[in-house]
Amino acid sequence: MNIxxxxxxxxxxxxxxxxKKHTDHYVIGINRTKSTxxxxxxxxxxxxxxxxxxxxxxxxxxxxxxPSAAVEFVEKYGAYIKKGAxxxxxxGIKSEICPKLSELSRKFGFVFVGSxxxxxxxxxxxxxxxxxxxxxxxxxxxxxxxxxxxxKLLSDLALELGFGMIKITTPEEHDRMIAYTSQLPHIxxxxxxxxPCCKNHKGFSAGSYKDVSRVANINAKLWSELFxxxxxxxxxxxxxxxxxxxxxxxxxxxxxxxxxxxxxxxxHKTKEELGE
Amino acid sequence: MNIxxxxxxxxxxxxxxxxKKHTDHYVIGINRTKSTxxxxxxxxxxxxxxxxxxxxxxxxxxxxxxPSAAVEFVEKYGAYIKKGAxxxxxxGIKSEICPKLSELSRKFGFVFVGSxxxxxxxxxxxxxxxxxxxxxxxxxxxxxxxxxxxxKLLSDLALELGFGMIKITTPEEHDRMIAYTSQLPHIxxxxxxxxPCCKNHKGFSAGSYKDVSRVANINAKLWSELFxxxxxxxxxxxxxxxxxxxxxxxxxxxxxxxxxxxxxxxxHKTKEELGE
Lengths: 276, 276
Known about the structure:
The structure is a homodimer of 276-residue chains.
Chain A: E1 2-6, H1 10-22, E2 26-30, H2 34-43, E3 48-49, E4 60-63, H3 67-77, E5 86-88, H4 98-108, E6 111-112, E7 114-117, E8 138-142, H5 148-160, E9 165-168, H6 171-193, H7 207-213, H8 220-228, H9 231-253, H10 257-274
Parallel strand pairs in A: 1-2, 1-4, 2-3, 4-5, 5-6, 8-9
Antiparallel strand pairs in A: 7-8
Helix pairs in contact in A: 6-9, 9-10
């Protein structure tokens, strides 16, 4: 297949490198900044430096752009996409953009299948991309009424690239779960490092500091967009967290050791039963 | 030197193994459960299965017990400790127990130097101990008016064992910083996994879920004691966190993208400048 990857950040770059590593598909890179494409080409991450015209020959298009930019790209260049091609995004929110991309797919005659690779790093850009990023990770597919052959094509491709698990879901369930599994930890990490103590942590800190603060090294522009477009589930999860946090705070404030132990034991059991 | 390690959990066991790995000191293991001592002896982690009588020949005594148990141990067996021996604890809180242990040191004629190895795992017990646990970690020393030779002896020993950094501080500063660097992440992790979403995370989660939830696999008995004995600094840090969290929640609720981005960028800069 000819696969066009639009956007050469950590997500797009890692797709290119993984496709080249694991398959014989022909990879077309498309990106606003040409120098990044030249770097990707010289790295062997892409077979061709593409542009809108290259979309005409792509069987699969992977949009690795910010959510709103993915919609804008298709609004602008949708007419160049081959009829029947499978187009997927890789955005961290789905309810806001999947209906728009589905509508554009009907307008331009391609098939849209939403997806979200559950992998990332606390650094960004093509320089951070690598051909192992997706190994063992979960690939969430949000079919949005696409035909099952197109969903299977994308699912098979993901497994070929080394993803460890395919999760098929709706935009709503995706957004509700992502609010919890991904957005909340990012907000927690940011709130955590804003304590005045943070700058003096060295010598006093170990693994638990390191883990909870890691993703505070956040891409503020991207994540503020993700939070904005997932406000309702996110606020729900923030409120749940706040209640659970207050229950522990109150028990500590009251000096109620049994109650603290009870809450911690409940958390311990939850985590232990899940295994991970 | 003869070094007695009291308590064969992850902390004590790792001290024994590290001493045997890196030094020629003679290690005496003391523990309530004899079978653990036999295991440690057969592992070569200790040179001798000891008891209260063995304390008479120890030049250094490392108490690797729960905070209150460390005080109780010395109250009960302090008379067996050699005059002039250096005794240290390894407890995660200091203001509550250091004055008690200092007082006992004057009563029994040994030197007490508080300490806290900044290392651990989300699992416990001798089985989790290993000879690399302390490699590169910080060793916090709380001298509590001990003479400088005794502090140096302990500091030199820690560096010999592979600790990467010695931090000398007061009980109050220790407890204030530990509330932030260690206790808070444990509370956050517990509050986080108590969300009803947690049990469905698989397929929707990646590194940020994994990191923030790791230490929810908590030893509820130990940590409820640590929280109870450090209530004031901990409540202060919890309140600071709660304020920072609410600032982000409010910005999300108001749909104020600029404000969200501003707060995230502040967190990002803090984390980036610290480097870790």
